[in-house]
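Contributing new complexes? Match this layout with magnesium ion.
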Amino acid sequence: MAYSLDPRTKRLGIMGGTFDPIHNGHLVAASEVAHRFNLDQVLFVPTGQPWQKEQHNVTDAEHRYLMTVIATAADARFEVSRVDIERPGPTFTVDTLKDLRLQFGAELELFFITGADALSKILTWRDHEAVVEMAHLIGVTRPGHNLQNPGLPSEAITLMEIPALAISSTDVRARVAKSEPIRYIVPDGVSFYIKKHRLYLDADKNPDPQSAGIL
Ligand code: ATP
Ligand code: MG
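Output block (do not edit by hand):
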């Protein structure tokens, strides 16, 4: 593989998402990629206002951020970034990558982790050419979605099979609204947080039409 071997260069994985809420599918994907690519850190980056999800009512960013912090707290490889929450306006991956480069400096190799569903739409992302220049893309399997290169140069992207977890945030929200269990689907702390703040009880806010029917 053509990745830099300079020991000073930090290898940073980035996992963007709405995380409404974060679930074990996200964590397994990040953990597998961190192991396979020998990453120093995986940064979970909750979105601000997600431009592709305007049709569904996204939970307040602070709740999504705190659930992400809780879910990742026990893993030394995982951190959470507020860059997308703090940038006004909709979140575009190209801006996330630019901000992280500024924040972390030049000695950085970026690996952008994305599931098969998001990967298939990558050519519709704003400035996707710049995204590919700034980060190596890692497409991970996700049940219900085909994992294939959406037409990017093969050196820009690695496709990776991970143990399949047929979990989505849409399903977690629907389960909470129906009082069905979410134990073992989200970390316990996230489940306690959801209960404490009475999140996702309003069934009208579910489901996200884009992801409905995955499970
Ligand atoms: P929603 O149902 O609200 O769309 P989601 O479960 O898809 O939520 P997102 O926050 O939209 O979660 O996803 C963030 C990233 O994690 C995306 O790249 C998505 O493809 C990936 N991802 C989500 N769930 C899984 C899973 N079970 N396995 C692998 N990747 C996943
Ligand atoms: Mg999704």
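Reviewers usually confirm one structural detail per submission. For this one: Residues 208-215 have pLDDT under 50 and may be disordered.
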